[in-house]
Amino acid sequence: MKLKRQRNKNNLYSGFTIVEVLVALGVFAFAIVLIIGSFLAFNLAQKSVQSAQEVLNELRFSIDAMAKEITFGGNFPNGCENGCVPDVSNKFVFSSKARSDFDLRVISYHLNSGVLIKGEQKTYGPCEILSGGELLPGCYQPFTSDKVRVDLLKFFVNNKDVNLKPIINVAIQGTILPGKREEKSFKMSSSFSPRVITDPFAPPPLENVPPEIYITDPVQGDKTIPGNRYQTSASFVVLGGTASDNVGVTKVTWWNETTGKEGTAVSLSGDFDTWRTPAIDLIPAVINVIRVQVHDAEGNMSFRDSVDKLTVQSIAPPEAPENITAYSCAIPVGQPIIGLGWDYARGADDYHVYRCEGSSCDPRTEIGAPRRADECQLPRPCGLGSRYWWRDSGFGLGDVGDSYTYNLRSHNHTTGLYSDYSDKITRVVKSNPCGPGGPPPPPGESFSLDPTNTMIKVDVDGSAGSKKRTSSIQIRVDDEGGFDDPVTFNVSGLPADSRYFFVPNPLTSARFNLGSVFYAIVKTNTQIGIYNLTITGTGGGKSDIIYITLRVKQEESGEGD
């Protein structure tokens, strides 16, 4: 009996071992982790699908909005039967008017860096429609969010006829949630049959086919060979060529980058199927770059450097020196000299000075060949507007009171050509002392303009509107012979619709050493290129001219306002 009771007591206090408990807990924990992981993965997948679905819904909403505008649209672009891919320069533009009592709207779509951009503008509103149906920059807004990257946008326009309803097909291809784990590609297409809307106030939309232009006369030569330019010994060149467009060419213009002059060509057949420019003046003995540009009936422009630019190497002789002056005086040792001065001649590398006899200045003897870089009157820079000096140092000069006659001609080393002889000038040898240093000054009171720089630059971004860009230089006045009259400034050669001012103007003698600041103000849609400006100073019956180069260039990314 005692043994039996003992066994029952042992059974009462028996249980699991520690190993058994740990194994059971491990199995339970693994099951819990597996269940939670599956739940989290399912939840994440659901959120990913939901997020992608939301983006697709946004995209469908955008397509639906586009469909409504196209449904009530008209005046669709030409040349889209095989598809148009709109970008910044070639937008898909049309007009839309849901009801007759609604305002007409101009709508445009295009792609810019993966973003679908919509432009919208009423015919009458705070910002007017620009020439050719283009919209102001502020009227463009993103039409898709940053959760979508659109890689392809393509419009097809078929049955575009007054008696048929056009059919518009839109194809969109891109990526949802780009750069994320949930990134997915998509392709969508829709087809619409809009009502045919005609409105007398509807501006014609821009079509997407740019015009083409070619220079066929004169022939430049192989453009792939550097320096293989068209050469002419004439002082001008006449260009001819062909132009074409699917709608119609309205105008062909030309522009000489080197001289800054521009004009319009004339049509010889059809709508400028063949065209010819008037005589375009060239700067002699230098390279002239001439561009032609074609405008079509929709307002588009073609500006293809590979086919519409002619580089002309002018081998015409340089211009003859002008405004020749002569002065006589004696250097400190008593040796008389005769100093000659003249204006810069375009196309000249150096100048040849001659003594001559008789009314025809013949015979003549060359007595010097000053190079323009050495003989330019400092501190003004050598080049357009500069004054050059050279002196007959007295070797061979006779006594005081003897007279000598001189003339000059310009020379260009590149072409080896000489200009015609300049007008002659006669000077009597005098014994009055020369002024300290260098050539004698002009007789009497005078002045000269001294710019701090001969080139100013301004960046433009091509945007229309009232925005402007400003550049400036300082112009000092060097007085000669006690000149103290106020100097008034003026300028010519600025781009169209540009403004300028000088501060101060006129400039009084007390501020000659400080100078006047010249400001050039151009619009942000000014044509890019080189403009040669002529600045004139007048005062006291005297005047002086300097030439400044204005370079208008494309604004780089990140610059500007």
Structure description:
- With 561 residues, this protein is mainly beta.
- It folds into 4 domains: 153 residues, no CATH class; 103 residues, Immunoglobulins (Immunoglobulin-like, Sandwich), CATH 2.60.40.10; 118 residues, Immunoglobulin-like, CATH 2.60.40.10; 108 residues, Immunoglobulins (Immunoglobulin-like, Sandwich), CATH 2.60.40.10.
- 12% of the residues lie in helices and 40% in strands.
- The chain has 3 helices and 36 strands.
- The strands form 9 sheets. Strands 10, 13, 14, 18, 19 and 20 form a 6-stranded mixed beta sheet that branches. It has a 5-stranded antiparallel beta sheet with strand order 1-2-3-4-5. Strands 23, 24, 26, 27 and 28 form a 5-stranded antiparallel beta sheet that branches.
- The longest helix is centred in the N-terminal third of the chain and has 54 residues.
- The termini are far apart.
- About 9% of the residues have low confidence.
Helix percent band: 10-25%
| DSSP summary: helix tally | 3
Assembly category: single chain
Whole-number radius of gyration? 40 Å
Structural class: mainly beta
Biggest sheet layout:
6 strands, mixed
Which parts are unreliable, with pLDDT below 50 for 5 consecutive residues or more? 123-133, 197-206, 299-307, 372-384, 436-443
**Tally of domains:** 4
Query: What's the pLDDT, averaged over the residues?
Result: 75
Strand content: 35-45%
Terminal CA distance: 108 Å
Shape: elongated
Number of strands: 36
Protein name: Prepilin-type N-terminal cleavage/methylation domain-containing protein
Transmembrane segments: 12-42
Keywords: Membrane, Transmembrane, Transmembrane helix
Organism: Candidatus Portnoybacteria bacterium RIFCSPHIGHO2_01_FULL_40_12b
